[in-house]
Amino acid sequence: MKFFSSSFILYSMDDIFTGIAQAVQLIASGDAALYEIIWLTLQVTGTALLFATVLGVPFGAALGLYRVRTRGLITALLYTGMGLPPVVVGLFVYLVLSRSGPFGSLGWLFTPSAMIAAQIIIAFPLTAGLTMTAVQSVDPALRVQARSLGATRRQEIWTVLTEARIGVIAAIVAAFGGIISEVGAVMLVGGNIEGKTRVLTTAIVLNTRTGDFELAIALGLILLTLAFFINGAMLLLQRNALD
Predict the structure, then answer these.
(1) What fold, for 2-242?
(2) DSSP single-letter state for residue 53
(3) Is 0.90 topped by the overall pTM?
(4) pLDDT digits (tens, 9 = 90+) for 90-111
């Protein structure tokens, strides 16, 4: 048993080192298929994050600023959405976009549009819920001061959002992390079609299933590198917001 464990560890380490070497080789060689997958990953995730931010941040800000009768219910739904399994979201989007579904006529199933729709649903509760929390943490006296200086409602909201900007950026970062690493939903609604809907996460799953662990590790390292640099850029933006 000890011999088996040692051999397994050595085999796994060899896979990792081979994967690192293969990742560098793939990037350096300018592999067209790889860059197509990377571009589609960034396109799908970036578009979904943009929509989730544009819709979620104002919604969360309004929910944090104004009291409505259903705020408790909406908050509970947002918090539930934060922990919603992505595969459940994928199933819901699949049923909605299938031929017998209400939006089947759009023809989005097994296209990047369906993947974007699924990722928006995953990211929206994060951007809205965390923005709401950030806005609620702002001193209420700031709103009173803004009103006393003659600020309009829109200016008042912008003032509060500016004060809560660190938390808002954190909400966007959390949403980005939640969707760039997501695999279940995009696999269901995208179908992992080569050259059409294959992204980094689904390519990793495919290569793992076929036993090509070195390539799976290489793609995983590329995904981690992308996430690192994008999160680094957002962290820099967050630091600039503090100045």
Answers:
(1) MetI-like fold (1.10.3720)
(2) H
(3) no
(4) 999 999 999 998 999 999 999 9
